[in-house]
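Practice record 12: protein with molybdenum atom.
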Amino acid sequence: MRSENTSAIRPSDITPESVYGARRQWLREVGVLGAGVAFAWQMRLAQASYTQPAWILQKMMQSRRREETTTEVLTPYKDVTGYNNFYEFGLDKTDPAEQAWRLTTDPWSVRVDGACDGGGVYHLEDLLRPHSLEDRIYRFRCVEAWSMVIPWVGFSLGALLRRFKPRSSARYVVFTTLERPAEMPGQRQAVLNWPYVEGLRMDEAMHPLAIMAVGLYGKPLLPQNGAPLRLVIPWKYGFKSIKSIVSIHFSEQQPLTTWAASAPNEYGFFANVNPHVDHPRWSQSRERRLPATLWDPHWIPTQMFNGYEREVAYLYKGMDLRRYF
Ligand SMILES: Nc1nc2c(c(=O)[nH]1)N[C@H]1C(S)=C(S)[C@@H](COP(=O)(O)O)O[C@H]1N2
Ligand SMILES: [Mo]
């Protein structure tokens, strides 16, 4: 599943990848306990008091299949965890890293309902038990014209959804984020309709590139990235990749998603990355690959379906992508 790499890789860009590889090797060697201590220590540096249950650390130590869809340089951990959109914690890119440690992610459960025969309320650990985790290196493109390359840890969304036995009438799947204003200060303001809702057509959700992520860079997700469970749909704009999911609903109708509800002329249901269809207020033909600075903005061309055209274009055959944006 390796896609064409169209952006230039500078020799200085190669380091983080090898550092990451060496780090993972080291983590394997020191084992679960060592990893737990190292992880807790790193979190102390960055966060006040966020903790993850031991079982997720343990699950992550099991050897993982690794799939790379790009050989572009990885975006450093500090950018992936420090420059975020998570409006439940505020509008600034640094708000989630500053605020989200308050989020309690254990215990965590997910309600599954709608047009399926396997609905119910699942504890996160039971939800994950049958799935083996994989490392998936994906491009990630925000609608605001910046992008990253992130080594996610996750598992197939399709495999998860099949367990709930969706009925043939289920044409869409709808995801909802936690609503807990006591821990999510952004929810005390009406900037969006809370809770945050996103959705996919069933065939999109079953696509092998679509994953549920529980970690990145070999570590459990921090809350700013959507702990403990978030979607990653690499051929769509970032806002489809909903964070901190508490509900999965199978629906016969296309849902009204949060961003489409807030500005229907700017954000459609499909939100496929498309350099030929501009946002009404800015061009989508290029993107700033992070890390970027004022002096080195690192603009690169945006690719159709974020570079995953060969894999996903068939899903949209015959659709007018200007109308269904
Ligand atoms: N619940 C929720 N999920 C969300 C968002 C949000 O504000 N709330 N922001 C979205 C947007 S616009 C982007 S670009 C990505 C950012 O993910 P990252 O911070 O892990 O890079 O999360 C998406 N998921
Ligand atoms: Mo975004």
